[in-house]
Amino acid sequence: xxxxxxxxxxxxxxxxxxxxxxxxxxxxxxxxxxxxxxxxxxxxxxxxxxxxxxxxxxxxxxxxxxxxxxxxxxxxxxxxxxxxxxxxxxxxxxxxxxxxxxxxxxxxxxxxxxxxxxxxxxxxxxxxxxxxxxxxxxxxxxxxxxxxxxxxxxxxxxxxxxxxxxxxxxxxxxxxxxxxxxxxxxxxxxxxxxxxxxxxxxxxxxxxxxxxxxxxxxxxxxxxxxxxxxxxxxxxxxxxxxxxxxxxxxxxxxxxxxxxxxxxxxxxxxxxxxxxxxxxxxxxxxxxxxxxxxxxxxxxxxxxxxxxxxxxxxxxxxxxxxxxxxxxxxxx
Length: 332
What we know:
By secondary structure, this protein is α+β, with helices and mostly antiparallel strands. The protein has helices at residues 9-17, 34-37, 51-56, 58-62, 65-81, 85-88, 113-122, 166-177, 187-193, 208-217, 256-274, 281-287, 306-311, and strands spanning 45-50, 89-96, 104-109, 128-132, 135-144, 147-157, 160-164, 202-206, 234-241, 245-252, 289-294, 297-304. The protein starts with 8 loop residues before the first helix and ends in a 21-residue tail after the last helix.
């Protein structure tokens, strides 16, 4: 699904790997541009990443699977959509849709529409120029997973680029024109986004139950084992590219007893990881993670050196697929 809009799924999966009452927010989080606020109300997850900070951090310098995922994302943006991420993109916002065609990518930075067109034409993409809700866009065709899709690359102004299937882009532009804040009508994502602090270099807000059910039922990659927890209803991951990578995960369950069971399960997974003789670096990772229970919520905190992240095997960040899950009898 993520590949349909040009953001490396490896990057998102890597970020994944690392309890107030539900309400609908009436005020916009200061960090979200109008186009992100107009993301579809039925989005499963929303991701924000400070690309400049990621590329300038030791994460990119020290290598490893995390750095590889970030580089793949920046390379994909240029190769597929004519955007030089390393030079022009400051931050990206991604809405993961309930259907492939609903996912949207918003980039902020410095963009030139004619230059984007030249890159696409230079790569022999043969883009078509169309009008979407009154805005000019380049539309290119791609063959992904034995399916041909159309992607619209819309330079909204010198500071913003919107990418997605043409119908999804048109819907968002119409919502923006009507000043609708569709995303804020999603009570789960709105509540989570309200908790994001301004200093976060990246964050991921997700309806965990809906995300797992929708994606696994379609055979798409699910969540990594650390987040594939049966009682986890939703979660927020935030991170800062400081001297070490600072991560926090806040997950919500149904009640405090369930939260304690989930906490024990996470601690068990960390213990098993620390006993991995083939990859002893996991013992160090496990020692740097703390787990706490706060009411129906579970909170994980970690401060991970970049050199340690570079040593972790790529397989650590692979998500499960439905075909990999054990067979069960009866109805779930």
